[in-house]
Design a protein that fits this description.
The two termini are about 45 Å apart. The chain has a single domain (about 1-35, about 160-734), classed as Maltoporin, Chain A (Beta Barrel). It is about 5% helix and about 55% strand. It contains six helices and 49 strands. The strands form nine sheets. The chain has a 22-stranded antiparallel beta barrel.
């Protein structure tokens, strides 16, 4: 495995390697790709940012189980998983509340997005997506707080209208089965459109059994990841039961359904209205990493699961095109979100089930506009307002008597509010006959948070209220030089910021055994300064090489550190003596890295592709710089794609390098407890996927992932990745 990984990396570096392809083409045209990273459509060639575009064709062909897997399979986005029902994207070493998730113009990051690992992205149904765009690096000018590592913008499908007097009626369905987790997914979609009205309905249901990990382990870690036991309640007593199949990760199964309903009204050729309703809900999602922990040779927990996680969004969007107003284009988006989540845990041989529940309501309004001042000058500007309301409750259930008693909440029990607002302006100039494109932007943001600590029965808070206001001024400057149709050279300087939210300032929880995190009301915003250089070269209309190098300086970096609470560095929490930690502002930290990509159209039916990403991050100290958490090891993707008529196939590898234990942040979120004593070993997988279009109404897809049945675990993850996985999908369209 080690020699194979070296060969892959040498191959990629030799080619200066990344990129993805959806269809095999005879030429690669840099002018073809259109993106919406600046809130309105523009050519990818003309923006200075590194952008990963995930097209409809790629979404369909890759046929991934979750949206987190969609991102992972780009080869340019790392994903951490604490449980199978998880998936936390990492962009340039930034994760969780340091990256921004947007769906259809609506910001999903809310007041309780935490600094650790987040699974919220899998509450977006990848089956209802039209495309996704990932912008790397700070983008606070357009998006405000949280956009430090980048922005993941997902776009759902749009209802189709009729082009004549006959209604446009379309329907589609598919069923997928996968062996590694006995996945059974069914999807239905239906579109009905007239000349002015369009209706689109999408529904997906997925059922996942316990996940089987790979059986081929490294000889130096022959038992790594084995699930040797699980807990059952037998005769009102917790029992540790021997797992007859240690590769089956008992305690990973869950189910999820997703519903989308969109209504479109095309008032005329310049005014469009869209009503958008989305609902995602799950069963209980076991927190697998916690269920594998032991204490004194016995399981630490008998139960640990996230309760049903619900995401509801209702939005209205008004689109105004040229000629309606003084704008060239304008868009108004109004949205309401209702998010429900809970954490439920019970220690082994303890009859009390601790239940902490959160409900977040978010109201938001976005106004974005563009104006062409001249043929070579485009002005974009807008405003954003969001208001979060957080209610946190908790209880303790005696599972033998069903008696319910009070328990401490995760967030302030008196409720919290979180308000964000911002104004932005950007300008893009095309100079030298369009060969030089200069852009600049500026944004003012204001954030206010308020939390009330009412009950002090379970924890002696020395304060009753946390109240904080922060503001920030962010900017960016970009240059794109296009010396020839086959060249693109870009230079970008951008700033970003993240204001502390309710999770940062008011959370009380135990992250690891013997560690408790307490609120820190004195936490301040963190700021990022980023510089990057990008080069893209097209050779012979067949070969595209692309590379981006970046350096990001993080001031007032928010991170976990030992803390004194009421002048004590150790306190008792839930009956366990625990070292006190809190989120604090470090002096500074930095992240540097490089991405390289290659796409080679060998013939009209064969193409090669590859990508590799390297990231390095450190916290500056008075002595020796200390590893910054969330920094993945070197990783990437490489392979070949073939197409013969209606038959398409792809063979590819995903790979990760070593993450040595000396590069772990032992105080942060790197989860060394779930790694080997030496860190997380390097790995690679070999994979094959195919599709065959039988006719215009029927398609068959089949694949084998992790053909070698390698046992591996993604860095910072608490669950092992799937072993050899056979999948088959049957698709029908009308």
């Amino acid at each position: 495995m080690k020699n194979s990984l070296k060969f892959i990396l040498l191959f990629l570096f030799a080619l200066n390697a990344t990129a993805q392809t959806d269809t095999l083409t005879k030429t690669i045209n840099l002018n073809e790709v259109v993106i919406s990273t600046g809130k309105f459509t523009e050519k990818k060639r003309e923006v200075p940012y590194q952008v990963q575009l995930i097209t409809p064709a790629k979404l369909r062909f890759d046929n991934n189980q979750t949206t987190a897997d969609v991102l992972l399979n780009t080869g340019n986005i790392f994903v951490q998983k604490s449980q199978m029902g998880g998936g936390s994207p990492v962009l340039r070493g930034f994760e969780a509340n340091r990256v921004l998730i947007v769906i259809d113009g609506v910001r999903l990051n809310n007041a309780i997005y935490r600094a650790g690992h987040l699974q919220n992205v899998i509450r977006i149904d990848n089956n209802m997506l039209d495309r996704a765009e990932v912008v790397f690096g700070p983008n606070s000018v357009l998006y405000g707080s949280d956009a430090l590592g980048g922005v993941m913008h997902f776009y759902s499908k749009t209802p189709h209208l009729s082009e004549n007097n006959k209604p446009a009626v379309n329907a589609g369905a598919y069923f997928r089965y996968a062996s590694a987790n006995n996945e059974k997914t069914g999807h239905l979609n239906f579109n009905f459109g007239t000349k002015k009205w369009g209706f689109l309905t999408s529904f997906t249901y997925s059922d996942f059994d316990d996940l089987r990990q790979g059986s081929n382990r490294r000889s130096d870690y022959p038992d790594f990841g084995k699930r040797l036991f699980y807990v059952e309640r037998i005769n009102n007593t917790d029992s540790a039961v021997v797992n007859k199949n240690p590769d089956k990760q008992a305690g990973t199964a869950y189910s999820q359904y997703d519903l989308l309903q969109k209504i479109r009204f095309q008032q005329n050729d310049r005014i469009n209205h869209t009503f958008n309703f989305q609902l995602s809900n799950t069963t209980n999602v076991p927190r697998y990493d916690r269920l594998t922990e032991t204490s004194g040779g016995l399981p630490r927990f008998a139960e640990w699961h996230y309760g049903p996680e619900k995401r509801l969004m209702a939005s209205y969007q008004l689109q105004l095109d040229k000629g309606v107003t003084r704008f060239t284009n304008a868009r108004l988006t109004l949205a309401y979100q209702n998010i429900t989540e809970s954490r439920n845990s019970r220690r082994f041989n303890n009859i009390n089930l601790r239940r902490q529940a959160e409900k977040v309501q978010v109201w938001s309004a976005n106004l974005d506009a563009s104006k062409n001042l001249a043929t070579n000058n485009t002005l974009r500007y807008g405003a954003e307002f969001t208001f979060n309301e957080v209610n946190s409750t908790a209880s303790s259930l005696d599972i033998t008597t069903n008696q319910v008693s009070a328990w401490n909440t995760r967030y302030p029990d008196g409720g919290s509010s979180y308000l964000t607002s911002g104004l932005y302006l950007t300008d893009q100039h095309r100079l030298a006959g369009g060969k030089l494109i200069a852009s600049a932007g500026l944004r003012f943001s204001f954030v206010h948070m308020k939390s009330k600590f009412e009950s002090k029965e379970f924890f002696p808070f020395p304060y009753s209220e946390a109240n904080q206001s922060n503001s920030a001024l962010n900017g960016n400057l970009g240059l794109v030089w296009l010396p020839a149709p086959t060249w693109k050279i870009s230079l970008l300087g951008a700033t970003g910021f993240r204001a502390p939210n309710v999770d940062d300032l008011g959370k009380l929880f135990d992250s690891q055994p013997g560690t408790v995190f307490v609120p820190n009301p004195n936490l301040k915003p963190e700021y990022a300064w980023n510089a990057e250089l990008g080069i893209t070269k097209n050779l012979f209309g067949k070969l595209q090489l692309e590379t981006t190098a970046f350096y990001t300086l993080l001031n007032n970096a928010i991170g976990a550190a030992p803390f004194a609470f009421n002048n004590q560095d150790t306190i008792e929490y839930d009956g366990v003596p625990s070292a006190v930690f809190a989120q604090v502002n470090n002096n500074s930290a930095y992240v540097a890295g490089v991405n390289a990509a290659m796409l080679f159209d060998v013939t009209g039916f064969l193409s090669l592709f590859g990508s590799v990403n390297y990231t390095y991050g450190r916290i500056n100290t008075d002595t020796t710089d200390y590893p910054l958490d969330h920094i993945p090891p070197i990783f990437g993707r490489a392979g070949a794609k073939l197409q013969f008529g209606m038959l398409k196939g792809e063979v590819f590898t995903l790979f990760n390098g070593w993450k040595r234990i000396e590069d772990y942040n032992l105080n942060g979120e790197d989860n060394q407890v779930y790694a080997t004593p030496d860190g997380m070993p390097a790995w690679f997988t070999l994979n094959l996927r195919t599709s065959y279009v039988v006719n215009k109404n029927f398609e068959i897809q089949a694949g084998i992932e992790n053909i070698l049945d390698a046992n591996y675990r993604l860095f910072a993850s608490g669950v092992s990745a799937p072993g050899r996985n056979f999948s088959i999908t049957l698709r029908g369209n009308l």
